[in-house]
Amino acid sequence: MSMSALLSSLDTPVALLDVPRMQRNIQRMQHRMNELGVRLRPHVKTSKCLPVIQAQIAAGASGVTVSTLKEAEHCSAEGINDVFYAVAIAPGKLDQALKLRRNGCRLSILTDSVVAAQAIVAFGQRHDENFDVWIEIDCDGHRSGLTVDDPSLVEVARTLIEGGMHLRGVMTHAGSSYDLDTPEALQALAEQERRLCVSAAERIRQAGLPCAEVSIGSTPTALSAQSLQGVTEVRAGVYVFFDLVMHNIGVCRADELALSVLTTVIGHQQDKGWIIVDAGWMAMSRDRGTQRQCEDFGYGPGVQRNRRVDRRRAGDGCQSGAWHHHARHRQPGRHYCALPHRQPAAHSAQPRLCYRCAVPGLPRLRCRRCNSHLESLAWLVISN
Would the keyword Lyase turn up in this protein's UniProt record (predicted)? Predict the structure, then answer.
């Protein structure tokens, strides 16, 4: 079956995964981590897809990072047992964590406060469980964690260790990397992320306490780091598919975007220069990831197959509005001629409309978009 025939047979909206691109992305990150001498623990919330996770592990990844205990449960059920739940744990979830560990999952958890550390210790002692625990470090003021000079840093470590828990180490995430778009700024933040997290580990060690591991990571800083001295592992997730946020940041090319959404033209507002497609925010996500970046791709640009995304004209052909089940697609100064054999939309000086035209949309923020299609099982894998 030809690609055109295959696309014509699909019920839209549907997520399209370009496996060769994905494999190249996986190899690119793994190769760079190997060069820098650290383990790669991918964040699997990006895909939540077992074959994708298995491809990352086959390439050399060691363990996985998750954002929910449900993700940890699914990974463990498939034999992926080295799991880091990288969200500061709420005491009410310790029972779930305990069940996972008792079922064979080598789950490690996270905290960033003395009170939470005390709760972990109390629960662990009641249930005779020595939890593996990381301490979160704030390296850029972007989110949660303790700063390297916070007086409670050593106290948290001491509380865990003296309470019988196993302190795995310290971790951080340079979330502010998403606000950058030059190699120099990214390299500087990557070094700041490394230096501050390593310094936090050294503070704990200087207090006479063991702190074996240093875990850092975001896709932009992982691909921009020049040295990871003192770091033992990197956590990154977006790299497996990449997206337009990463494209704006400058850490990937348009031809490295592995995930897109196929949608169908269902209407035309000729006087407004709009076409209406059947992929609304349920398919495309309401998270406007590029809204505050140098180029705003709206709810995602429509592109022809093999057409390069031009950063200088990123606004052309972007979805400018999205509703529950449909969206409008803006083409300033032009009109779409949607071809009946479901090829991506082409331009015409004489606007007309043929229904059932396929328009691939490039990913803006892969996590939410990917998860929407995982919930509906609407996937097509393109292998070549």
Answer: yes
Q: Which two tokens stand for residue 177?
A: 């990397």
Euclidean distance between CA atoms 134 and 146, whole angstroms = 12
Residue 310 CB: number of other CB atoms within 10 A?
A: 11
Cis omega (within 30 of 0) for bond into 13? yes
Q: Count the Cβ atoms, other than its own, within 10 Å of residue 103.
A: 12
Question: What whole-number distance in Å separates Cα of residue 363 and Cα of residue 373?
Answer: 12
The answer for 37, left when phi > 0, alpha when psi is -120 to 50, beta otherwise, is left
Class of domain 3-13+252-382: mainly beta
Gyration radius of the chain's alpha carbons: 23
Q: Please classify residue 82 by burial: count the beta carbons closer than 10 Å to its beta carbon, then call 0-12 exposed, 13-18 middle and 19+ buried.
A: middle
**CATH architecture under which domain 43-236 falls:** Alpha-Beta Barrel (3.20)
Helix-strand-coil split of the chain, %, nearest 5: 40, 20, 40
Strands (E), 112-249: 132-137, 166-172, 213-216, 233-234
Q: Please state the domain extents for the chain.
A: 3-13+252-382, 43-236
User: pLDDT tens across 110-165, in order?
Assistant: 999 999 999 999 999 999 999 999 999 999 998 899 999 999 999 999 999 999 99
